[in-house]
Amino acid sequence: RSSDLKHTAVTDSPDLLHAKFSSHITNERLYKAAGEDSLHRYTTTLGLPEFSRARTNAANLSDVKYRESWHSLRAQGYKLTTEAIPFQAAKASGDIASDYQYKHSFEAEIGRA
């Protein structure tokens, strides 16, 4: 007898699966939630040149780093060597003045003799 057999619905038929999938895709609430969620989930590649340049610029513009470098420079003291440009210019002008004085004194001696 057919009344003795239990009838069950087939839940994994291709038509039912397609209908479930279509309703899931066309659900506007889930669509908007997925779009909003994707806006907040992203990964960054830290090796990009833009990130390394931004990191370098942030370090250069950092007030803490600026003060640290200023204090380290102050702690080293001022090192002025004789190869500095002002000293070379003063030496050259001294040599020119010495040559001029030598020629002037030489001409004065020739004029006296």
Describe this structure in words.
By secondary structure, this protein is mainly alpha-helical. Helices cover 70% and strands 0% of the residues. It has 5 helices and no strands. The chain has helices spanning 14-25, 28-39, 49-61, 63-76, 85-112. The N and C termini lie far apart (157 Å).
Which descriptors would you attach to this protein?
113 residues, mainly alpha, single chain
In helices, the fraction of residues equals: 55-70%
DSSP summary: helix tally: 5
Distance between the termini: 157 Å
Radius of gyration from CA coordinates: 44 Å
Please summarize the sheet with the most strands: none
**Uncertain residue ranges:** none
| Structural class category | mainly alpha
Beta-strand content bin: under 5%
Question: What general form does the structure show?
Answer: rod-shaped
Would you report the number of β strands? 0
List the helices and strands in order. HHHHH
Mean pLDDT: 83
